[in-house]
């Protein structure tokens, strides 16, 4: 039975996943390591508001398990040495240079981990891929680990994480399934699969723990994300048709969702999907397909991303068009920056593209998000607009609190579906704004007839 786990990478996946494993396995010592000292300090912060990841329910588990059987540290080598099982949970961003630039996954962090494990380990280890990786990455890891001089046996498993941010703790506690890919034809492979299953069996029923070969497991993760993203692009494509006709996307989604073959989840039309996974994983899938000469397959999946880009720019253009073709010098309130509600993560958030477009149109942006820090918003915008922060600060204003943000505004643009945006007092807000007052609801969270009744000019998605 496993007694000691190490997780390399203390990010949005590694942090919450290890917190739940520690919670459910009090007999296992779980050490989460990262090269980023600042991040580890934040995980160890006394003030739980300072944790690097915001997830409902996470702070409570950290408070309960930290320094009991859950540890955060920068001592990577020591943790590797002590552990019987090592999870690799480092980032695998899209490559920004060289071969496969803009498409392939950048595996340099994964490779560095494998090399470090190979050089440090002095006892046998089970190495678990947690990060989403291209198919056959396990063989790369295997060949690196084989170079170990210390006469150590490594067994590789793929155990992709399916949690969604904002609901990570609930997803981890009640997973639809746990997927373990491994070498089930060999006794060593079987033992490794059994060892990892034992950990999950402390809270997940056996029927939900699925075993496949390692390549199926790797490909299933990419496939799941591609299918989920495809549903959003499909409903967003229909939202454009709805806007051109008198159909209403929420009614269409409701009607088709009743077909049990289709199902009603993940059919919410929006300003476009964001997050660190969907775009990256599909680009990765497209690259893999191209590598195998499967160009039709590559084109098919590429279209999911093209549709998402189209949706974001269509929404941004609509704002300008509706406001009499100019937003120059107009005060526009952007509600939300995170890529979805209940997270402080803004990676690939549609908000970034919308803001970028509006800045180019010379709008005066006033931004509020309940969890994303002002510094993060500046960093995101600096990267996307290439305007230095000092200059950006003259064009945008970021608020910690929405109290005064609406004064003299011309328009409100809802980009993230935070619950609090639904219950703002829009009657009062309207009185503070310039007339005609516009609301662009990029998430369809408000009731159009109520908002129109108040006197707003309301523009939603697909209606
Ligand atoms: C379809 C719709 O299902 C039905 O709701 C609508 O009213 C009419 O069109 P139909 O074409 O009769 O019905 O059969 P369906 O079961 O949908 O199959 C269509 C085709 O898809 C068949 O060739 C079937 O073999 C194929 N199919 C279906 C697959 O290849 N894989 C599947 O998983 C399901
Ligand atoms: C996704 C997968 O859901 C998860 O299983 C995987 O492990 C990681 O990638 P995540 O990106 O955290 O999770 O969040 P998700 O809930 O999938 O939302 C992704 C984006 O799609 C968000 O921007 C969200 O707002 C958007 N979305 C989601 C829609 O626009 N409409 C929907 O109906 C659902
Ligand atoms: P994810 O959303 O996949 O969890 P994050 O970027 O939030 O991605 O987290 C990945 C973490 O992995 C980062 O904190 C990064 O510092 C860490 N990391 C990357 N490479 C290494 C490495 N070789 N050793 C330790 N930590 C690493």
Helix-strand blueprint:
Elements: E1 4-8, H1 14-24, E2 29-33, H2 37-43, H3 58-65, E3 70-73, H4 76-82, E4 85-88, H5 108-120, E5 125-129, H6 137-145, E6 154-158, H7 168-173, E7 178-181, H8 187-201, E8 209-212, H9 214-244, H10 249-257, H11 278-291, H12 295-322, E9 331-335, H13 350-360, E10 364-368, H14 374-385, H15 389-395, E11 396-399, E12 411-414, H16 426-432, E13 438-441, H17 448-454, E14 457-459
Parallel strand pairs: 1-2, 1-4, 2-3, 4-5, 5-6, 7-8, 9-10, 9-12, 10-11, 12-13, 13-14
Helix pairs in contact: 1-3, 5-6, 9-11, 9-12, 11-12, 12-13, 13-14
The structure holds uridine-5'-diphosphate-xylopyranose (2 copies) and adenosine-5'-diphosphate.
Residues 8-14, 33-36, 39, 76, 89-91, 109, 112-113, 131, 276 line the site of adenosine-5'-diphosphate.
Taking the alpha carbons of the first and last residues, their distance comes to 56 Å
**What is the C-level CATH assignment of the largest domain?**
Alpha Beta
Radius of gyration: 24 Å
Count of helical segments? 17
Q: Spans with pLDDT under 50 lasting ≥5 residues?
A: none
Which of globular, elongated, flat, extended, rod-shaped describes the shape?
Answer: globular
Number of discrete domains: 2
Annotated CATH architecture of the largest domain: 3-Layer(aba) Sandwich
Largest sheet: 6 strands, parallel
The amount of helix comes to 40-55%
The percent range for strand residues is: 5-15%
CATH superfamily of the largest domain: NAD(P)-binding Rossmann-like Domain
Class based on secondary structure composition and strand pairing: alpha/beta
Q: Strand order of the main beta sheet, please?
A: 3-2-1-4-5-6
Strand segment count: 14
Average pLDDT, all residues:
96
- List the bound ligands: uridine-5'-diphosphate-xylopyranose, adenosine-5'-diphosphate
């Amino acid at each position: 039975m496993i007694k000691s786990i190490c997780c390399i990478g203390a990010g949005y996946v590694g942090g919450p996943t290890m917190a739940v494993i520690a919670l459910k396995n009090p007999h296992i010592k779980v050490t989460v390591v990262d090269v980023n000292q600042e991040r580890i300090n934040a995980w160890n912060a006394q003030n739980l508001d300072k944790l690097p990841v915001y997830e409902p329910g996470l702070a409570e588990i950290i408070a309960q398990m930290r320094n009991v059987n859950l540890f955060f540290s920068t001592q990577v080598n020591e943790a590797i040495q002590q552990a019987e099982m090592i999870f690799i949970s480092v980032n695998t961003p899209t490559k920004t240079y060289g071969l496969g630039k803009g498409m392939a996954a950048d595996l340099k962090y994964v490779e560095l981990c494998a090399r470090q494990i190979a050089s440090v380990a002095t006892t046998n280890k089970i190495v678990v891929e947690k990060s989403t990786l291209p198919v056959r990455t396990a063989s790369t890891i295997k060949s690196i680990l084989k170079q170990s001089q210390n006469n150590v046996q490594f067994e590789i498993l793929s155990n992709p994480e399916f949690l969604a941010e904002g609901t990570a703790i609930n997803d981890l506690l009640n997973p639809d399934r746990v997927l373990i890919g491994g070498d089930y034809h060999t006794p060593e492979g079987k033992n490794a699969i059994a060892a990892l299953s034992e950990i999950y069996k402390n809270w997940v029923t056996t029927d939900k723990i699925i075993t496949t070969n390692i390549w199926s497991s790797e490909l299933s993760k990419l496939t799941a994300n591609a299918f989920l993203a495809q549903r959003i692009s499909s409903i967003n494509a229909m939202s454009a048709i709805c806007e051109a006709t008198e159909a209403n996307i929420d009614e269409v989604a409701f009607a088709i969702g009743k077909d049990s073959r289709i199902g009603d989840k993940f059919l919410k039309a929006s300003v476009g999907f964001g997050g660190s996974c969907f775009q990256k994983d599909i680009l990765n899938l497209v690259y893999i397909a191209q590598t195998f000469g499967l160009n039709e397959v590559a084109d098919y999946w590429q279209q999911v991303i093209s549709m998402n880009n189209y949706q974001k720019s269509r929404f941004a253009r609509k704002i300008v068009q509706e406001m009499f073709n100019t937003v120059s010098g107009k005060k526009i309130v952007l509600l939300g920056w995170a890529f979805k509600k209940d997270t402080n993560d803004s990676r690939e958030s549609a908000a970034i593209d919308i803001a970028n477009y509006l800045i180019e149109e010379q709008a005066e942006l006033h931004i509020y998000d309940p969890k994303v820090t002002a510094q993060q918003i500046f960093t995101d915008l600096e990267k996307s607009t290439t305007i230095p922060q000092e200059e950006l600060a003259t064009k945008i204003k970021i608020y910690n609190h929405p109290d005064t943000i609406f004064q003299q505004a011309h328009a409100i643009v809802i980009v993230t579906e935070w619950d609090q945006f639904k219950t703002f007092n829009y009657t009062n807000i309207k009185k503070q704004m310039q007339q005609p007052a516009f609301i662009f609801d990029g998430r369809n969270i408000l009731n159009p007839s109520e908002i129109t009744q108040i006197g707003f000019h309301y523009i939603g998605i697909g209606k």
